[in-house]
Amino acid sequence: MMTEQGFVLSALLQGAFICQVTNEEAWRFLKSNDNAQQLEPHLNLLNRTLSTTAEGEVFFASYLTIGEAERKVLTQQFQDTASNLIPLVEWLLLVQQASESDMPVTMGNAIRLNELQTTIEDTPAYAEQLEKISRYKMFGSTSVNLDGQLKQVFKRLTELGYLSKPNPDKQIYLATGKVEHLYEMIRFIDETEALSLSEQAEAAISQGSLL
Amino acid sequence: MSQVLIQAGTKLLNALGRHSDLIMQAYVNGTVKEQDYSAKVLEQLTQLGVLWRPDAQSELRLKSAVRTLLEGSLQDERNRTINANIGASLASLKTLAEHYKEALYHNKFNEAAAHMSDLTEHVYQLSESLSNSVRIMFSRINNEFGYVSSVDAKIRENELAQGQVTDLLSQLECFRFDELSEIAGSNRELRHLLVVSLQQRFSKAAQELSVVQARLLDLLGRFREFKGRTRLLKGYLLHMEQQPDFTPGNYANLTQVPVLFNQTASVIKPASVDVNSVEHEEAYHGMVASLSHIHKRHQHDHEDDKQQDIDMTEQSTVSLEKDPLQLAVEDYFCDVIDSGQPKTALSYYQEKSLTFDQEVWIYQVIGGYQALADQEKQFFALDAHGKNDPTYTGNFYINDITLGLR
């Protein structure tokens, strides 16, 4: 039998993001400073350290020192992320616009697939957008009908850890902490590259552009 | 109270009961569909002050008093008006208290009792309206302004609510308990109403309102955060539309990799089976038993076999390589046949200077002889040279054997 510490440690070593949605017990465990400090030596042994994102609500393991091998892994990861950004952003906006409340998808949000599907089916613009999103390499859908496209997109997002499906029998998905991490990354890119994305969006809205 | 008033009240309530569906329709829709009801009924309700017509062209609406009654009793979310006019209520309280004291002073007890009941009514009304306002605020916060859909509208609603809270708080400042206690003087009943009861309500409302204010600010922050996120996403798409070849710099190559992009790869791989572990034997048995696809695959193989032709010619070319020892024995037999003379196995062994172990050689010769078919065996004679065991009878040691033709 593994202790709770062991479970959390193995989850971290698997490269998982631990948040309240995906793994509440581990999240609670890590929320306690004492527990986190007990884990630290184990992680350090494997050149890892505990890191948090989204204002301390999401935990993951990061490298302690970065050598050539680690840099290679990180570069690969970063390239994957950078190429996935557009499909993910388009998907986030689609879900936001198609949901009645027009609220951005945040950690813990429930997305009801059936409701979403109904809205998208009723709005040709959304259906077109979904088709475009599902064709990206990241999702790789070849389906011609909307149902298949939507299911494939959600399946891939669950595999990648952006969504979790608490009840396998129900088509209800919860956004995980990885979504928060995604926002943080976009914000970081925005600041580092001085893109002033918010201002661009603001200007476009005030000019009454297509957005 | 006069009998007439009671009768009129009963009549009004009866009218409300009789036309409840009409009233509820008006409450839900805002107006009455006049063509659906008889003019007489509408006229009667208008006279009773249940319905009214704001101006000549507009449709009949519910009187706000009836609407407030329904909203209060049904705990309806749509009730968003807040009566913040505490100053006026306080002023009327003071006036009534003065009336009461004057009546008492002149020993007009009937009048005093009437003033007292009026005053009580007013104080409780004020308390109720205070607690009602706070309740409305809380219900709005609890469903996060669910009655409007867009984030912008929520932000506006939040700002309105904040304004109302500020108003309420500034109205609460109108309470001057020193003045009230002065007015109440030494009168026990007045003191109870004006000081004790009001003060309790006041402190409770003030406390709750400060909680409301904090929560409202919190919510406003969240809504702003939502808007910020939306702008970020839209801005990113816009940017990518304008500069499709934009790629962010490779942050993993920086000397100080930002923690956001420093995510480790998985190091844990599944463990392997340890068949020597006795503890796990039972679990392994279970696993193997549940591996149904192995049996299936076997059946599959058999099906394949049936459809194949077996190539017989291949097999005929297969030849067995003989052991060198066996070949040597065959040569020995041939040698005896060729020469026609008996010869011992060991002398042949020395003649050909064979390299096998002597004992093995003798065994192989005996074996070779025994292996011959009965017909062939008749041509040969095999004599064993040796001696009996000195101690135990029945044991014969073979030193050599002679093979000859019969």
Question: How are the SSEs ordered, and which strands pair?
Answer:
The complex is a heterodimer of chains A (211) and B (406).
Chain A: H1 4-13, H2 24-31, H3 33-45, E1 48-53, E2 58-63, H4 68-98, E3 110-112, H5 113-122, H6 124-135, H7 146-159, E4 163-164, E5 172-175, H8 177-192, H9 197-206
Helix pairs in contact in A: 4-6, 5-6, 6-7
Chain B: H1 3-18, H2 20-29, H3 39-48, E1 51-52, E2 61-62, H4 64-74, H5 86-105, H6 109-142, H7 151-172, H8 177-184, H9 188-242, H10 281-289, H11 292-306, H12 312-316, H13 324-339, E3 343-344, H14 345-351, H15 358-371, H16 374-377, E4 380-388, E5 396-405
Antiparallel strand pairs in B: 1-2, 3-5, 4-5
Give a quick precis of the structure.
With 211 residues, chain A is mainly alpha-helical. Chain A has helices spanning 4-13, 24-31, 33-45, 68-98, 113-122, 124-135, 146-159, 177-192, 197-206; strands spanning 48-53, 58-63, 110-112, 163-164, 172-175. Chain A has a 3-stranded antiparallel sheet with strand order 3-5-4. Chain A has a two-stranded antiparallel ribbon with strand order 1-2.
Description:
- Chain A: Pfam families: MksE.
- Chain A: InterPro entries: MksE (IPR053841).
- The complex is a heterodimer of chains A (211) and B (406).
- Chain A is mainly α.
- In chain A, 59% of the residues lie in helices and 10% in strands.
- Chain A contains nine helices and five strands.
- Chain A has a three-stranded antiparallel β-sheet with strand order 3-5-4. Chain A has a two-stranded antiparallel ribbon with strand order 1-2.
- In chain A, strand 4 (163-164) and strand 5 (172-175) form a beta hairpin.
- Chain A starts with a helix and ends in a 5-residue tail after the last helix.
- In chain B, 63% of the residues lie in helices and 6% in strands.
- Chain B contains 16 helices and five strands.
- In chain B, strands 3-5-4 form a three-stranded antiparallel β-sheet.
- In chain B, strand 1 (51-52) and strand 2 (61-62) form a beta hairpin.
- Chain B is rod-shaped, with a radius of gyration of 57 Å.
- The model of chain B has no long low-confidence stretch (mean pLDDT 81).
- The interface between A and B is large, with 57 and 36 residues.
